[in-house]
Design a protein that fits this description.
Elements (H helix, E strand, L loop, with lengths): L6 H7 L4 H8 L7 H21 L2 H12 L5 H10 L2 H30 L10 H11 L3 H14 L15 H4 L9 H6 L2 H17 L4 H24 L1
Helix pairs in contact: 2-11, 3-6, 3-8, 6-7, 7-11, 11-12
Amino acid sequence: MHNVTNPLQACNDIFFRPNGVFNAINEKSNWSWLPFLIVVIMAILPNYLYISVIDISWYQDLVINAQYGQLSPAEMEAQKQNMTRTSMTAFTVIGTFVGLIVINAIVAAYLNIATRGDEDNANGYTDWYGFTWWAGMPIVISALIAVVLLVLSDGGQLNPSIVLPLSLAYWMGTEMTSDWFAFLQSIRLDSFWGIYLTTVGISQWTNFSTKKSAVIAVAPWAIIWTIWAVVILL
């Protein structure tokens, strides 16, 4: 197994040789601040750029029709007046930041509980919380592609799925008004990459087999996607 000596190297190697990275961060708990900053910034950047280049009037109508279609025309107009470019940018930045922290906190709690079956596992909740940011690093690839697409675009009326170009919603051209939009946005190539990294990390940090590690990594996604799809269908 190759030797990982610093967090910058770890952020690079997590994409190519994750076994060594998870072995190293199992001993270097303070390294997780770097992927935390990278993941948060890269998750926010495409959304920030999108709001900056989009035809704001068109986007206001799109969001209102998708989320507030049951309101009266007067109420919809009031909502539109509140949806300035500045307010939507602030909401996007704060929402993404807080959302990532909360979601990773929940995932860390799950991993902490799911790995208690290994009596030799000495990692606690904070260790697994740091772990989640390493497993989330594939979002960097998605974000970079999104930034390129947005920079090369003419702005205007762009499908919101462009901020997640590795999602089924983008590939299928799903409109925001579709009931399946958010669901298909969640099914992304980088999500599966994150599941793979989680599998690798669990197998490195515990005595669990690769198969058991994979089951632990896949289970929450499989459950969420299944329930979500059933709710939409019903």
